[in-house]
C-alpha cells in the first residue's frame, strides 16, 4: 500500500526524519512508536503531503505520490488525523460529518439557485450516511450535539467518523488515544478493528500506550532520532534490547527480570 524510501525531512540543521524507509501493507494496522522527537509526526506529515520531503520518495499502490498536496491525496483515499481534533465546534456532530465529501452541489452559487431539488436529495443522502457512521461508532445519541461540546475522546471518534464519509483506503492516526479515558479508548480501538476487518481500511497508528498498540497493531515500527530502529510484532518489540534502551526504558526490563 505505502512504501517510503530513504525519506529525509530537515529543518535547517535538524534532521527530523533522517533516512527512514518503511512499508505499510494493505489491510494492516501498523503501529508507529518511539520517544518524543523521534520524527513520527513529521513522517506522517510528509507522507500525507502536509510537509514536502527534503529528499526521498513516497509510493502508494505503485504510484509516486511524493510531495502531492493533502487535497489530492484525500481524493486518492489517503487521510490523516492529528493529535488535536480539528472539529467545527459551532456545527453539530452530524453536520461535521455531512460536510466532509467534496464536490457537493450546494458549494456552487448557480446550483443553489437552479438545482435546489438536487441539493436537497444530496443532503438527504449525506444525512443518512452520517447517521449510519454515528451508529457504527455508537455515538448516534450525539448527532445533534454541537461538536465543540464533545469530550476529547468523542472528538477523536468524530475524526474517525469523518474518514468513513469518503472512500478511505489508508488512514494515519496521530495519537488517537491522547487525553482519552480508558473506556472510550477501547471504544475507539474496537471501531478501528471493525473498520479494518469489515471495511478493509488500512491504518497506521502513532501511539504511546503500549496496551493500545498491543491490542491493535501488527506489525509495530519503532523510530528514534529520525530513523527506523526496529520492526516486528508488539511482543517482539517489547523484548528488543535496543527499543528498551531508546524508548521503553530500563524499568520495563527490570520488571521482566523480577517476574
UniProtKB/TrEMBL annotation:
GO cellular component: plasma membrane
Domain ABC transporter: 2-250
Any one GO MF annotation of this record: ATP binding
Chain segments annotated as transmembrane: none
Keyword Transmembrane assigned: no
Keywords of this entry: ATP-binding, Nucleotide-binding, Transport
Protein name: Branched-chain amino acid transport system ATP-binding protein
UniProt organism field: Paracoccus tibetensis
Amino acid at each position: 500500500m505505502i512504501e517510503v524510501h530513504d525519506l529525509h525531512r530537515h529543518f535547517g540543521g535538524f534532521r527530523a526524519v533522517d533516512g527512514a524507509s518503511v512499508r505499510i501493507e494493505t489491510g494492516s494496522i501498523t503501529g508507529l512508536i518511539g520517544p518524543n522527537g523521534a520524527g513520527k509526526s513529521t513522517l506522517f506529515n510528509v507522507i500525507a503531503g502536509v510537509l514536502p520531503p527534503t529528499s526521498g520518495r513516497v509510493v502508494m499502490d505503485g504510484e509516486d505520490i511524493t510531495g502531492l498536496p493533502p487535497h489530492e491525496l484525500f481524493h486518492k483515499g489517503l487521510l490523516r488525523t492529528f493529535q488535536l481534533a480539528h472539529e467545527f465546534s459551532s456545527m453539530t456532530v452530524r453536520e461535521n460529518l455531512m460536510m466532509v465529501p467534496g464536490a457537493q452541489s450546494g458549494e456552487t452559487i448557480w446550483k443553489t439557485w437552479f438545482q435546489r431539488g438536487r441539493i436537497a436529495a444530496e443532503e438527504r443522502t449525506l444525512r443518512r450516511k452520517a447517521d449510519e457512521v454515528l451508529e457504527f461508532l455508537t455515538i448516534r445519541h450525539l448527532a445533534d450535539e454541537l461538536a465543540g461540546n464533545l469530550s476529547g475522546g468523542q472528538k477523536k471518534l468524530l475524526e474517525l467518523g469523518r474518514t468513513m464519509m469518503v472512500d478511505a483506503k489508508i488512514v494515519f492516526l496521530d495519537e488517537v488515544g491522547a487525553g482519552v479515558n480508558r473506556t472510550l479508548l477501547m471504544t475507539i480501538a474496537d471501531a478501528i478493528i471493525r473498520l479494518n476487518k469489515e471495511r478493509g481500511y488500512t491504518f497506521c497508528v502513532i501511539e504511546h500506550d503500549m496496551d493500545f498498540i498491543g491490542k491493535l497493531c501488527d506489525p509495530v515500527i519503532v523510530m528514534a532520532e529520525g530513523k527506523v530502529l526496529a520492526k516486528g510484532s508488539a511482543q517482539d518489540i517489547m523484548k528488543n534490547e535496543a527499543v528498551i534502551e531508546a524508548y521503553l526504558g530500563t524499568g520495563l526490563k527490570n520488571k521482566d527480570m523480577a517476574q
